[in-house]
Amino acid sequence: MHNHPIKPGRVALVTGGASGIGFGIAQVLMEAGLQVIVTDVRADHMERAQQALGTMAGRATFVPLDVSDRGQWGAARRLVEERFGDLHVLCLNAGVGVLGSMLESSDADWNWIMSVNLDGALLGVETFLPHLLAHGQPAHIVATSSMGGLVVANDGGIYSTAKFGVVALMEGLRRDLRGQNVSVSILCPAAVNTNIFDHERMRPATFGKNAQDEDELERMEAFAKTVLAQGRDPLEVGKMVKAGIEADETYIFTDQNVMQTLVRRRDALLAFT
Ligand code: NAI
C-alpha cells in the first residue's frame, strides 16, 4: 500500500479552498484530523467558510492567496514553514470558468484563464515541491483539472487549453517523481454543485471583462447554474479525493457517465489514418 500522508496531525494546503470543491476537500481532510490551510482570493468566501465550519474551525487556518501571483505563493510558503513546519498535502484546486465561444474572446479572457488555471498550478508546484521533497515524509499533490482537461465541450476551448495543460503538467510530474516521497493525483470532475457558474462576477478588474453582452452572459450563467445544480455534492467529491490520495490514483473521476465521452475521444484518435 502506498505510504500516504492522510494521518492526524499532518498539514494540508488547499487553493480556492473557501468554496465548492476546494471547501469540500478541506472539510474532509479536517475530519481526518489534518490541519488545513484554507487559501482563497475571496475574503467573503473565506468568512462564509469559517462560519460554516463551526467547531471544526480549530483545524483550519484561513490565508489569502491569489494563485496567479508568484509573490503571494512565496509568502504562503514562509507562513507554512514558520507556523506549521512541514506541509504534506497540497491541493492545487483554484480555477475559473469563462463563458462563450473562442471566436468572441479577448486577450483578457485568455490571460485570466491561463494565469489562474494553469500558471496557478505551476506556481504551486514550483513553490512547494522543493519543500515536500526536502522533508522526506509521505506527501501528495492533487491538482483539480476537469473533464474539460480530457475532452473539449462546446464553448470550452479556452478553459480546456488550460485544463489539458494541468493534466500534462501533473502526469509529467507524477512520472518524474517515481520512487520519491511525493506523489501526484489529477482530479477530473464532471458537474459539481458549486459557485463556478458565477465566475464572471468574480473576475478581477485587472483581467478585463467578458466580451458577451450582459443578456447573453446572464442566459449562459442561468443555464450553467441549472446544470450544476444536478451535479455532485462537493463534500462527496472531497471524500473521493481523500480515497484517491490513499490509493495513490493517477486520476480521480467523479462520475461514471463520463467514461462514454472518453471512449468517444479515444475512438476518434484511433480512427486517424
Ligand atoms: P467555486 O467557485 O465554488 O470555488 C472556486 C474558488 O476558487 C472560489 O472560492 C474562488 O474565490 C477561488 N478563486 C478564484 N480565483 C482564484 C485565484 N486567482 N486564486 C485563488 N483562488 C481563486 O468553484 P469550483 O467548481 O469549486 O471550482 C474548483 C475547481 O474545480 C476549479 O479548478 C474548476 O475549474 C474545477 N472544476 C469544477 C467543476 C464543477 O462542475 N464545479 C467541474 C470540473 C472542474
TrEMBL record:
It comes from Phenylobacterium montanum. It comes from the Bacteria. This is SDR family NAD(P)-dependent oxidoreductase. InterPro entries: NAD(P)-bd_dom_sf, Sc_DH/Rdtase_CS, SDR_fam. CDD domains: SDR_c. The keyword Oxidoreductase applies. Belongs to the short-chain dehydrogenases/reductases (SDR) family. Keywords: Oxidoreductase. One of its GO terms (molecular function) is oxidoreductase activity, acting on NAD(P)H, oxygen as acceptor.
